[in-house]
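Researcher: I need the complex structure. Ligand is phenylalanine. Inputs:
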Amino acid sequence: MRPMLTRRAVTRSALTLLLASATVFSLGACKGKGKGKEDATGPIKIGHYASMTGSEATFGRSTDNGIKLAVEEQNAKGGVKGRKISLITYDNQGKPDETVTAVTRLIDSDKVVALLGEVASSRSLAGGPVAQRKGVPMISPSSTNPDVTAIGDMIFRVCFIDEFQGKAGAKFILEDLKLKRGATLYNRAQAYSSGLNGFFVDAFKAMGGEIVTQQAFSDGDNDFGAQLAAIRDAGVDFIYVPGYYTEVVNIAGQARRLGLTIPLIGGDGWDSAELANAGDALNNCYFTNHYSHEDQRPEVQAFVKKYQSTYGSVPDGLAALGYDAAMLLFDAMERAPSLDGKDLAGAIAATKGFAGVTGSITIDANRNAAKSIVVLEVVNGAPKFRANVNVGP
Ligand code: PHE
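Model: Output:
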């Protein structure tokens, strides 16, 4: 069985990492000193803003673990431009307003030269405008909504976008599962969920499938009875659920109790060890994702081994993307003529064929990355590699 994401097996090396970086779990009162230059003599500061607590806590924690491994690895090689890297992480509790506070503090008080974050698209859409306005480059490891990088020339990502992910899901359902009649159930309050729902529905219809009903819910909802009853009455072959893992676990349990045994299929937002909380309710269910820990490429296996020996759990896609975002940032810092926002953004934008754990990363003209996509099957709560999907550019 896949080890759960807990601190049970925290090794000495993980403790060293925890001590080496300043993880701040709450944002107390802070007096911003306004924008200023970084101190060019000490370590290079980078900021991570993340959901370390709340209903998407594994997103922030896994990402932070991945980033810390990258920082440790880079520092062991001598850092960047002869200086050590120092990571400052703030918890936004999964809230947009806390996100703005965290990003503002990282830039104005801590004077970070770059930001990593967020996972959830709605929170990248809250933090991104602050980074853009203050001229500090930001790399989202895993926000897939197209609007995130459209914020401006300081905002990048190292993952694919949802138009591609929606198409890949549609193709897998029609061609691999051979299911033609579906319903969707999505969170209208999350940019990711509503965006991916739309991209999926458009692609599924364009490929000849039928979507009988689209049901929605909102942040914090945990009773999906009315929506699931409507879906049951519609008589469909599957439900597409482009949500986050906490929602998916609840939806799966409630669907099974209502007697709905059809597969649920979703996207990367499912990626969490907490899917195990659904027990067998998610068997015969699938989601599109950025990576599989079973991928035998040497980059993947080296990362999985290192992560497991440090944290005692199998890295999910968030951990891999956090690691890749940080490593790509260090590579760009080394190439940048200076660490000023414009110079650094220019170096990130020029990244080509960077060998990441999640695949080769080339930053395109829209500051996005074209990446490969996998389908994972949930087997007793653990993700198993099921298929690679090619949907073209
Ligand atoms: N893609 C999701 C979003 O944009 C976040 C996510 C990425 C969640 C990867 C899980 C794994 O909100």
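Model: Summary of the prediction. DSSP finds eleven helices and 15 strands in the chain.
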